[in-house]
Amino acid sequence: MIRTADAYRAGLADGRRVFYRGERVKDVVADSELRVAVDHSAIAFDLSHDPQLRDLAVDVVDGEECSAFYTVPRSAADLRRRSRLIEAAARAGGGMIVLKEVGTDALLGLLRSLDGEALERARAFHRRCQRDDLAVAVAQTDVKGDRSLPPHRQADPDLYVHVVDEDADTIVVRGAKCHTSASPNCDELIVLPTRAMGPEDADYAVAFAVPVDTAGLSFYVSSYSGGERNEFEFPISSRHKMLETLTVFDDVVVPKDRVFLCREPELAGPVALSFVGYHRFTAVSYKLPLLDIIVGAATLVAEANGISRAGHVRDKLAQLIAYAETVRGLAELAATRAEVDDRGMAGPDPLTVNMAKYTFAHGFHDATAMLVDLAGGLLVTAPGGEDWNNPEIRPVLEKYFTAAVPAEERLRLMHLISDLTARDFGGYQAVLAAHAEGSLEAEKLQLLRSYDSGPAAAYARRLALI
To answer: Which letter does DSSP use for residue 26 in this model?
Structure first.
């Protein structure tokens, strides 16, 4: 069945262990701050019931309607459709992922990288998530400790999630993952290895899925971007929020029918990379609305300030357009160059998808700097919502902040850009650009791994008469 947003919210009341600002949260839906993130994630379910998006967001499998997020891509056309669905979700979500994207990335990665009984277990879990329209989060990044040391040499063995016990039917895991997005407000959690591992790291080579209310599983929500905020000053972050957690496994018991990898270090790297391929494709797809916001806001604020005809302004707008459309073109090319494996699954071209992600991340800070330059100092000195809503103060603001457009339009634009660049949400986006879905260095490494330099080198040798 395809769930409604209300059914999704109702499913979150299960006693899960969530901590926020030093206290246990009894109900993530009832909490005034966390509810913003829940409502943001509910967009993933609204898409399936939107008449204008149903053809994109809904598939039919075995005669039953299901969310297209769970559709296994079989061709370049399927990958392009997935990209459009992720873009549509992010457009509705203020330029951010909403809920189902990352979990389905992990499922596709597992289906593409596993074999034998592990593959059958992954297929069974995928069918359950698809049938019940579940929201799945992913815990991949271990807290790592001293990064110069492999997992087995850490002073504290719990700095990477690892197997501490095993019997015929279960494994027991302990440790912690960080940067776990949307985990307090999902249904299931997939755990993946964070890196390639050697034989001595066997206990750390583990992948599995558990319900979020599993005993011993706790979520510590970051307070970053906390606090209630009004829509006038925070037009994006007052309505759209992702919860990020430290996710702790305190002797969590996992049934073996939910274990996809256990003490097989030679598979840790391939499983991790298979997820990363889909996840970076998701990244460049959901960043497209964010780039549209930057270009659109730059255009509007230049017009509002009366500077749109200045040469340096037109130059900045041209650079922003080129940046946004380069990322879009590379995202489309990553799907067009799809790699279809021997089991009929299509994955994005690793070279092009990493080019797209690198181009986005490398250019983001320059793009937001140009947007700040075009907007001006009102990003941090403009009056706020309480002033605007005061009938005695508003006439003063309307008089003195009018420019090429009325004061209200100009101030709302300033607050949109400030939310995106100068305030805590802007800082969040800046860090995401540098580190989410892989760092710049990780993307460069994958570019080098994916590019076959042989033909280019051979051509250069021929021209040099070598």
So the answer is: S
Q: Which amino acid is at 238?
A: S
pLDDT in tens, 197-217: 999 999 999 999 999 999 999
Q: Please name the residues in contact with 233: beta carbons below 8 A apart, sequence gap of 6 or more.
A: 384, 385, 415, 418, 419
Pick from 116, 107, 161, 175: nearest CA to 137: 107
Kindly report the number of other CB atoms within 10 A of residue 43's CB atom.
23
Whether 335 and 348 have beta carbons less than 8 Å apart is answered as yes
DSSP E strands, 184-294: 188-191, 206-211, 217-221, 244-255, 259-262
Residue 311 is encoded by which pair of tokens? 């040469």
The answer to whether the CB of 88 falls within 8 A of the CB of 292 is no
Alpha-carbon span 37 to 19, nearest angstrom: 15
Instruction: Give the integer Cα–Cα distance in Å for 12 and 17.
Output: 11
312-328 per-position pLDDT tens digit: 999 999 999 999 999 99
**Domain regions of the chain by residue span:** 268-463
The predicted structure's pLDDT at residue 225: 86
The β-bridge relationship of strands 244-255 and 217-221 is antiparallel
Helix ranges, 146-196 (H): none
* Helix, strand, or coil (residue 441): helix
pTM over 0.90? The answer is yes
pLDDT digits 0-9 by tens, 139-156: 999 999 999 999 999 999
The β-bridge partners of 220 are 19, 246
Q: Cα–Cα distances in Å, from 102 out to 72, 81, 188?
A: 14, 16, 12
Q: Is 97 helix (H, G, I), strand (E, B) or coil?
A: coil
- On the question of pLDDT at 130 being above 90, the answer is yes
268-463 CATH fold: Butyryl-CoA Dehydrogenase, subunit A; domain 3 (1.20.140)
CB 346 within 8 A of CB 78: yes
Helix axes 100-113, 265-304, angle to 10 degrees: 150
* Token duo for residue 56: 């994109």
pLDDT surpassing 80 at residue 1: no
Q: Write the pLDDT tens digit of every residue in 81-127.
A: 999 999 999 999 999 999 999 999 999 999 999 999 999 999 999 99
Q: Where are the alpha helices (DSSP H) in 305-423?
A: 311-336, 350-375, 378-381, 385-388, 394-400, 407-421
